[in-house]
Amino acid sequence: MKKRLLPAGAVVAFLFLAGRAWPQLVIGQYEDEAPLRSWNTPGIFLAPSLACGGAGIAAAWDASAVLVNPALACALPKFTAAVSTSYLSASLMKYSVLNTGVLSTPGPIKDQSYGVDFGGLAVRLGNWAFAASIGLAENYGRPLLEYRAEEQGVPVYSIRVEQTGWLRSFNLTAARTISRRLAAGMGIRVLRGELERTIAETFAADGVFIDDGRRQTFAGTCWNAGLTYAFSARVSGGLVFRSPFVKKASSRSLLEYRAPAAGTDITISADEEDRYEQPWIAGAGVSWRPAEGLRIVSDVRFYKWSSYKASYFGEPKTRDFRDVWTAAAGVEYVGSYRLFGRDVRSPLRIGVAADPQPMRAVESSYIYLTFGSGLDLGRVRLDVAAALGRERGSGDGLSVRRTMLTLSYDLGSDRP
Amino acid sequence: MRNLLFPILVVFCVLPAGAPALPVQDEPVEIVSVAATEANMKALAGMRADVLKAAAGRIHIVATARDLGRLSTRGIPFAVETALFAPARPVATSATGGLNGEFHSYRELETDLKALEAAHPRTVQLRTIGTSLEGKNIYAVKISDAPERDEGEAGVLFLGCHHAREWISVEVPLLLARYLAEHAESDPAVADLVARGEIWIVPLVNPDGLEYSIDVYRYWRKNRRANPDGSFGVDLNRNYGHMWGADDVGSSPSPLSEVYRGSSAFSEPETRAVRELFLSRDFRAVVSYHSYSQTILYPWGYADVPTDRDAQLREIGLEMAGLIEAVNGRAYACGRAASALYLTNGDTTDWTFAAAGVPSYTVELPPVDIEHGSFFNAEAEIDGIFRENLPAMLSLSLRAVLSPGKDGIARRENEKHAAPLTKRDQKYK
User: Which CATH class is domain B6-84?
Assistant: First the structure.
């Protein structure tokens, strides 16, 4: 699903929204399992939610809403489907061998990726609603590192460091309208993914080759649940909970030292089972419509990161994490216009978000400014969004730039 | 003649005491040797014995219980040599699997050291002599007949893994600790050694660096100091206090360098931990294990000049090399550090020799060169490398603790030969 950066022309339509920004990552740590951009991955946001800072616990725009709050399936049209694609650029200062002692750069370097990262649908049958989707939950990719040294034009040494990885989420949701004001929902997520890291070194002058290859395949299952409650025609609220779960990993490695001229071939291989004990997440959100066409949304979430535990190739690893609260808020205004002789609705959205990272060693936090727009052509909606994030705390000036394009199809405009 | 006594004594130390019991299974149980006479060769052929090697007038065979019975029945004298080879029965260890294979990570080492102490409380005491920059414990194993008591006995200090990527340098001193603990009651020579003195073993001086070497980058050498210029690491074996920073060849003032000596002598908690341990005890010999090159080095390293006891240091070093070679034929070179390898200022053994005048050696373990693995050793080599070093370890330990003040190496006598201490050394002393 995820690809490396496509030719710039393929994404130029989004880039104008993004401007300049800086991405994130682990600060003062070099764990391979850190998701690119942020440790906090509560669900999958599509363009409308992303444009409102990522808020969406009490507001449903499309089929992805159920990943944040399953009860929102009851707030969607009778049938809705969505597909979304995004471009992500994140700057990283310290990971693996980069700026941790082996290879150094004067400043952060960027990882860029582009891909289709969500597809899903939801249906409403009476008081019941169901949804199914697949999405890219986490990205473990890192910028490729390559260094070569030559003496008088002759290669003497090279090192190449590569890491790719992802976690996909397969989701099923059921929700029910309990009363005119209250709905509840529950979903199950099956997670599958992989992470591959290789370091290849060549000491050409000595005829020595060192290869360090590691591969992990991930599997896990969690559930999430949520409530929505309509306080009035204008105000509604939501509560969500995602269960803690264990992301299990089958980890294999091969470390090899070869000096073919001397017949030396020394290897150490490993085949281990690892566990990444993910924290539970709880959140609350509100949606308020103060006027026709205007909506204000806001969320807070709590991540129980202090319970996070990881093992890596059979060894328990210390991750000194603290619990964190994140917050997001956004404003949406939907206006009507005449376009090509027909009435269309076009939303304008703007949002902010605070995304503190769990590492205790450095109190790192991202502040996001988000915005977006779109076209609502009745059954078909096209939304675009951009998020610019800048990190404070590490002193490295990390940044994130994310742009997203979401295409939705609704059958029946009878949103309950 | 006296020089021969120690090797002979050591050989007897490493041979198991008493005749082995004869189990009835057909599984290989021991490696034994018999004299390489024509009659014995015929007898072995008749037994269809599993011949391992023939050298130096002896034939080594992998013997089953039945083979041992036949040798006894036929009146063929044999010597049990199992201890000189990789163990026929693997020793329990937590270092199995994972990125580091049968080499120890910090956690695995911690687990095994605690288990060793728990299994041998009468001879082993585990102490924490300091903590690393990242807060990991730096452990020292004290092996003595009353390890909980401070008897002020003469001691010998074995150090491992100043340099993170030299994984084998953790294993050799750790296996020595295990060997001494396991033989302290069954082997009279080891029992005598631990009764008369203290053997201190610090198998992992640089735990942070080792973890980085395992998890992130195999060739990492230094500790994990975050330097002001954004680079990482101080070379702990350039951070000791004697002639620290004497020039920029034997160490480097650049934090980017692999041999960065740090901001000052003993700037690192890891070297301070070793210093404080060393100055607090009556150590009469020191060995710091490194790899690679199969070389035994003695001071000075900071300049190619001899100490005033160069001949004695060389004699002991050559004796250690001879003991190693006698085990399996592997040759270790021996020489003054500055000339046999390269200039090193601020290294461990220059400082220990300067501070106390005791025999101080850096032992560069196998392989011999980069083409044969450089800082890599096969997992299967671990026990063999320990076994080949064991007689030399025991020999030096015996020298240090059995003959205090008589053979010219007693610490207090040596101090008058030692180079002047720095102010900082004197303060801690």
Answer: alpha beta
